[in-house]
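Notes to self after the call with IL:
- keep both proteins in one doc
- input above output, always
- annotate only the second one for now

Protein 1:
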Amino acid sequence: MRSKLAFIKSTLDKLYPNPPIPLAYTDAFSFLIAVVLSAQCKDSVVNMVTPNLMAKAPTPQKMAELSEQQIYSLIKLCGLAKNKSRFLKELSKIIVQKHGGEVPDSFEELEALPGVGHKTASVVMSRIFGAAAFPIDTHIHRLAHRWGLSDGSSVLQTEKDLKAAFPKNEWTKRHLQFIYYGRQFCPARGHDLKRCVICAAFSEPILKP
């Protein structure tokens, strides 16, 4: 396992030494909004949508004043836009009413917001508040299973296993590196072993789901 981890770390560090956050944002609120919108939606689409949305509603107060239909008209290119329109209005109202207009800085309070699950809360806590977190999305869950770093039984188990595998101060960077690598070289479909050097380096497991 140590040699496998060393190879994975080395490969990821060579490819993505300083991986940038793929979502555009200006503050904690705009980042929270972008992460909520990114669920089942390409980052490029989110980055197209958020400038107009945040120009119209740059604060929780302003977002809460918009109708769901107004929000929908600004985010309709995103997947699940109708649900997300409701989430954005409701979470903005809660941030205003319960948190003084400031994005809360705890996992518990974030996860209590509509449309914010553990993964979204982990991304916000890590990026905005500097908390130790290893957010697990579908790319990371898939890669951890393929590379034999977790048994793939659940997202929570994958999070636990990857936190144990990598030092805490690397979690944020590894999270982003896994995402970029999964998208570029180790997709769910059309996986090409000739391009995926990490899968190619180990005979087992390679092409598990």
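Protein 2 (the one to annotate):
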Amino acid sequence: MLNMAVEKAQTATGRSSERMKNLSRLLRYILVRGVVLLITVTIGIYLTIIIANGGGYVDEIRKASIREQVSLSLQGNELLRDYTVEERKAYEERLLELEYKKLDLDKPFWQRSHKYLWNGMTLNFGRADYLLSDSGSSEVRYILGERLFPTLLLMASGQLLLFFISITFALFLSRRYGSPLDKLVVALAPMSAAPAWFFGIFLILIFAAFLGWLPFGGLVSAPPPNEPLAYALSVLKHLVLPVSAIVISSVFLTSYHWRTFFLIYSSEDYVDMAKAKGLTSSQIERRYVLRPTLPTIITSFALTLISLWTGAIVLETVFNWPGIGRLTQEAINMFDTPVLVAVTVLYAYLLAITVFLLDIIYALVDPRVKLGAEGNGS
């Protein structure tokens, strides 16, 4: 009895020690991955700041615009009527210096870029250079806030619908390999070489211009309905064409991709053994096909969620959709650096957080993955 008690105590001690080691490896892995991702995000944001400003070129454009505005304001100033040319020029230079200093343009770009980096890392986006929100505010957070909901509405409706349709359709096709429908999907897969906005143009021509069933674009009818139900129905009507463009552009290729992926796992020996045991098709798919492919499905779903925040620049422009994608296009055209940096920072943080969480989720759903095992993270 004494020996059994000692053995139980040793076993409990061993288990406790193993749990502490696992916890230590997990914490070390989280710390290392967090530091690596933080460094990666920092480098990405700094490169974005440099590219968005053209290495200081945009500053020169802003200075030229300020100089033009100051010059025009002085031309109609009656108080400067008796000034000599030299005095007017000196006065103009003083005004320019004050404007440059107010906008922090009196310092070299490379010196200010570190300040921009810190502001970006801390989500302090400041004010836009040219763009305004619908309420007239130049605060970047308000501009992004107004454009975020339309993008989430459009991309969530399109991308999530595409994801679940593709998975379900691919499972259906994997059970009918070689059928006429399967061959048709394989034949239509190259259609996905064309982007969503390409199909969107044809949908607009057919259902808006020719048939007149659906609106050309926008978020809601003008003027917007006052009743909530009528407003929601109007938004839903405006969603039909862009969502259809997203789904049509990728559904065949995505279904073909997942169908091939499921077929690979369906041909494994353990699947044949499960069939020999008399398991139903649904049980085989759930236990022996979907379960091993779960990490890949989770990855695809997570990347789909990231795309919900970014929008699609050309698609939103084609459908006149007031989202983040169209905002990015406007910021590029107007060289609005704060808005470009803000959009990139949000995307970088979302991508880093998603990758970080995916690594941990993999270890939970796939026993082959070990967090920090033997000092290595998978």
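Annotation: The two ends are 44 Å apart (CA to CA). The chain has a mean pLDDT of 78.
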